[in-house]
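Lab notebook, bench 4. Still working through the backlog of constructs that have no structural model yet. Next entry is a single chain of 191 residues. Request: give me the structure tokens for it.
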Amino acid sequence: MPRSSQAQVVRTHDAILDRAVALASTDGLEGLTIGRLATDLDMSKAGVIGHFGSKEQLQLQALERAIALWTTVVWDPVKDTEPGLPRLEAIARRWSDFLGDCPFPGGCFLTSASFEFDDRPGPVRERVREALGLWLRVLAADARRAGFSDPDQIAFELNAIAMGTNHAVRLQGDPKASRRCRRAMERVLTR
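Model written out:
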């Protein structure tokens, strides 16, 4: 019996996190409320918060779940590609496809979280900053291997294109945004 109880706890925890990620992608991490999650999942507020201890812990775990999904869709399929330009080109394809057909209802989770928490001190901001910083370093490392004279600039431009693409897809409803993203990234990589 304890195994099934533990399995149920894990399933409930996962269900809460899945719903939290979906809600936070449209309403923001600050817009994530225990009450809304409880209502959506037909649970008590105490039942929801009991899995996390605090709203901040819920936000951090939702952020980790979103990072894990992004990693699975964008990075994992290309991580074993030859480092340097081949991997950057593969990243550009995966990243632009991800933005055009995003699994998050509100678009790129990290892009939204970066705007939401750019000036808010605390652990959530630091985790967003850390995750995006790591990605920029990964991009710059491959740009360095590819022989670009300013690898940090290449990483900056690729990231800026992705953030602009999220805006074009979500706010402007541009059906060509994903293709534009890929072309823009390819231009940066063929300089």
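Notes after review: DSSP finds nine helices and no strands in the chain. Residues 137 and 155 are 8 Å apart (CA to CA). Flag for follow-up if needed.
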